[in-house]
Write a structure and sequence with these properties.
This protein has 227 residues and is α/β, with parallel strands linked by helices. The chain is 39% helix and 13% strand.
């Protein structure tokens, strides 16, 4: 695949997973994740926001962390950024059944300003605490392609040396030969203005069309025992 390179890591992601990776099908993993107390984010969040999609999904889209809307709904990408992403996926020709949506961090981190909850970036320890869940999702789904949305997800998948600005839209060979790509997070696009937003939006759609094209060239999806 054009623009690919080998990763020097032996695990599914660039950063090591500490501790045992949870096991089970996706429904079991969701139930287990509700009880996770590995970091303090669960205390203020409304609920765990686990990934969404089929275990047969061929593409794993990894975002950064839930926002206010996701925290209330208990599902990833349901706010304004999610609407932008889902529209871009539709434009790209990717079928919803082929896509598994998840985040690097499974709880909403925020600071209150009156009645408003303002998003805060999860720190390195909080990201590391969630990594076993991401690894478990990866191992259960065994996607054919991985797409990181935004810098946090890109650093988790490809390492801290990865530059989203310079390397966006390029394929990189993850361990086991699985191709991975990073592109803009839709929330970052929404923060831009004018021509910068239009350009980033076009780039996201172009990258997702590249994912759809790569998927069309890949082997047919496997058959297994379901979720």
């Amino acid at each position: 695949m054009a623009g690919s390179r080998d990763s020097d890591d032996s695990g599914p992601f660039a950063k090591p997973v500490e501790g045992e990776t949870p096991s089970g099908g996706l429904p079991t993993l969701r139930r287990k994740a509700v009880e996770c107390r590995a970091c303090p984010l669960w205390r203020d969040a409304t609920q765990t926001v686990f990934g969404e999609g089929s275990s047969r999904a061929r593409v794993m889209l990894i975002g950064e962390q839930p926002g206010d809307k996701e925290d209330l709904a208990g599902a990833p990408f349901v706010g304004p950024a999610g609407r932008l992403l889902r529209a871009a996926l539709e434009q790209s020709g990717l079928s919803p059944r082929d896509v598994y949506l998840t985040n690097t961090v499974k709880h909403f981190k925020f600071v209150r300003r009156g009645k408003v909850r303002l998003h805060q970036r999860a720190n390195a320890a909080e990201q590391a605490a969630c990594r076993p869940w991401l690894a478990a999702e990866f191992q259960r789904i065994r996607p054919q392609l991985v797409v990181a949305l935004g810098a946090m997800a890109a650093h988790t998948v490809f390492g801290r040396g990865f530059s989203l600005t310079a390397q966006r839209g390029q394929w990189h060979a993850l361990p086991a030969g699985i191709p991975g790509m990073a592109t803009w997070h839709p929330s970052a696009i929404l923060r831009k203005r004018g021509r910068e937003r239009e350009l980033a939006h076009r780039e996201l759609e172009a990258d997702l069309r590249g994912v759809a094209d790569a998927l069309a060239d890949a082997e047919p999806p496997r058959q297994d025992d379901g979720d």
